[in-house]
């Protein structure tokens, strides 16, 4: 069956229109949530890198699965609970441990990873709405939380625990945007600069 040039042109136009529609819908689904960015608030750092090679930190890990730091993360979360941070939805994701920290109405995501023989713990914006959770699931993009007394309280509690544990050393804090850009030239001993 022969199609004329007009029918071929219409078919190509329809296909291109459908492709454009799919791209448009996908972009609407994954656009960045309003009010979040990759930049930490001024004077705040939300990424801590530290060393800790205590065998106890790896005691519950399974070599056949890509999970690491199960016991260290449990100890970290228990330390935060002792400092009045409510921990919810604790779980394992590939190559990392994740929990939700609640301080009053504010929620934050806490992530612990093992990266190039160092531990990395970060405090991130927590997706709340269905659209934000969908965005996070589709893109795996992480953002910095907004500045607030609750964020500073969480960072202070985390910093206190990291410095109090005898198996942890060399704690350095970085701004999230610097860490994402692999710029580690400006570490800080504390998460909040006066």
Rounded to the nearest angstrom, the radius of gyration is 22 Å
Quaternary structure of the protein = single chain
Unreliable stretches: none
- Largest sheet at a glance? 6 strands, antiparallel
Characterize the overall form: elongated
Class based on secondary structure composition and strand pairing: alpha+beta
Helix content class: 25-40%
> How do the SSEs run, as a string of H and E?
HEHEEEEHHEH
- Strand percentage: 15-25%
Head-to-tail CA distance between termini: 77 Å
- Number of β-strand runs: 6
- Record the strand order, biggest sheet: 2-3-4-5-1-6
Number of helices: 5
- Mean pLDDT across the residues is 85
For this entry, give a set of tags:
single chain; 194 residues; alpha+beta; six-stranded antiparallel sheet; 5 helices; 6 strands
């Amino acid at each position: 069956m022969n199609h004329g040039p007009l029918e071929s042109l219409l078919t190509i136009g329809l296909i291109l229109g459908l492709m454009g529609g799919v791209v448009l819908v996908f972009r609407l689904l994954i656009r960045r949530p309003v009010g979040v960015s990759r930049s930490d608030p001024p004077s705040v750092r939300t990424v801590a890198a530290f060393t800790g090679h205590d065998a106890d930190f790896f005691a519950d890990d399974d070599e056949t699965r890509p999970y690491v730091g199960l016991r260290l993360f449990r100890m970290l979360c228990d330390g935060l609970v002792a400092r009045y941070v409510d921990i919810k939805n604790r779980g394992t994701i590939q190559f990392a441990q994740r929990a939700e920290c609640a301080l009053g109405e504010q929620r934050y995501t806490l992530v612990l990873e093992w990266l190039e023989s160092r531990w990395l713990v970060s405090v991130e914006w927590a997706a709340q709405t269905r659209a934000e959770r969908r965005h996070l699931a589709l893109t795996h993009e992480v953002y910095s939380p907004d500045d607030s007394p609750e964020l500073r309280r969480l960072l202070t509690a985390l910093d206190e625990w990291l410095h109090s544990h005898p198996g942890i050393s060399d704690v350095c804090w970085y701004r999230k945007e610097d860490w994402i850009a692999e710029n580690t030239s400006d570490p800080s001993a504390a998460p909040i600069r006066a």
